[in-house]
Write a structure and sequence with these properties.
362 residues; alpha+beta; Creatine Amidinohydrolase, Chain A, domain 1; Creatine Amidinohydrolase; six-stranded mixed β-sheet; five-stranded antiparallel β-sheet; 11 helices; 19 strands
């Protein structure tokens, strides 16, 4: 089966399981997933795009306006993919969905009048990467890693966080990657905030750069830290501790285990390195695909890890953090956002050695 036909089959299985006639997809992430990488957004901050997809047991429709239709047809090649276009003038309020869904039992990837909310189920479908998506994810990971490497090595004391964020954006955009999350903290702000939006504060000695980069709808996440001058012993100790936690997560992320079991291994690692409560200050990550996290890991998470899925764990201890995107492989996991030549901390677990990023000392 092709990637497209495989996804159509999964959608129709979902309809059968829920005794529904049709599925409506309106989220940007769902649109990219169902079309194998197409983009229907104009406002990059919007959850919902400029087109909708409606899949019934026999047909698949694309609903949009006359502004967006030419690009979706000619550049995204969606008519060639087999979508039946329903196009309305932008200045009318006529909605083809009213006619197309009349009398149908409808499911949707978000709240929609008269439809069953299947957002959780669809997030889990998006997280089941096909081999083709796995190839695209690895390319994206390499591009994100290159962008981060170039951006962080260019940073200098005196730069504001806004300037650092602009450089991250430049390096990603020049590689065709959209940085949908672009966080920067310097010095004391690294310890103060887990989600630091950039400010006008100037870098003195220590900076943390965080990015979630999107291309083909897929998202990769990574974090790196840089310190100018001698690294304080306390920071070095914390960096080694968080690397051990991160390695524990990666080691535990294997097919057949539940997400909850993996999270528990990470919490055990926090306790073993002497920071047993730090996990309570920030989520630990989870499955990634077309959202930075399709769903977050919780102790009660029952989802079974499958071959080819991608995860981004992001353990943090006040003042440090470790984050990469990994893909589950047959024998071991691949870190798709690994940066060649980056200083590393080696962690051995049950005979396997994991290399996690250290703080770059400049």
């Amino acid at each position: 089966m092709t990637e497209f036909s495989q996804k159509q089959e999964r959608i129709r299985q979902l309809l059968e399981q829920n005794r529904l006639d049709a599925l409506l997809l309106q989220r940007v992430s769902s649109f990219a997933w169902a079309t194998c990488g197409a983009a229907d957004y104009v406002n990059t901050a919007s959850t919902f795009g400029t087109a909708s997809l409606l899949i019934t047991k026999k047909q698949h429709y694309l609903i949009t306006n006359n502004i967006e239709a030419p690009r979706l047809e000619n550049e995204e090649k969606l008519k060639y993919q087999g979508w039946e276009f329903h196009v309305t003038p932008w200045h009318t309020e006529n909605n083809p969905l009213d006619t197309l869904t009349k009398g149908l039992k409808l499911g949707a990837d978000s709240m929609y009048p008269g439809a069953k909310d299947l957002s959780n189920e669809i997030a889990r479908l998006r997280a089941m990467l096909t081999p083709e998506e796995g190839v695209r994810l690895r390319v994206l990971g390499r591009l994100c890693a290159e962008a981060m490497d170039h951006a962080i090595r260019a940073v200098r004391p005196g730069w504001t966080e806004h300037q650092i964020a602009a450089h991250i954006s430049l390096e990603n955009r020049s590689r065709g990657v959209h940085p949908i999350v672009n966080l920067v903290a310097t010095d004391e702000r690294i310890s103060a905030f887990r989600h630091p939006l950039p400010t006008y504060k100037s870098l003195e000695r220590y900076a943390m750069l965080v990015v979630c980069g999107r291309r083909w709808g897929l998202v990769c996440s990574l974090t790196r830290l840089v310190h100018f001058g001698k690294l304080p012993d306390e920071l070095r100790r914390k960096a080694e501790a968080v690397a051990r936690v991160d390695a524990a997560y990666i080691h535990a992320t294997r097919p057949g285990r539940t997400i909850g079991q993996v999270l528990q291994q990470g919490l055990n690692a926090y306790a073993s390195v002497g920071f047993g409560d730090e996990w309570k200050l920030h989520h630990q990550g989870g499955a990634v695909a077309y959202e930075p996290r399709e769903f977050l890991a919780r102790i009660t998470s029952p989802e079974i890890i499958m071959m080819g899925q991608a995860f981004a764990w992001n353990p943090s201890i006040t003042g440090v953090k470790s984050e990469d995107t990994i893909q589950v492989g047959e024998d071991q996991n691949e870190v798709v956002t690994s940066i060649a030549g980056w200083p590393v901390i080696e962690v051995e677990i049950e005979g396997r050695t994991y290399t996690r990023p250290a703080i770059l000392e400049q």
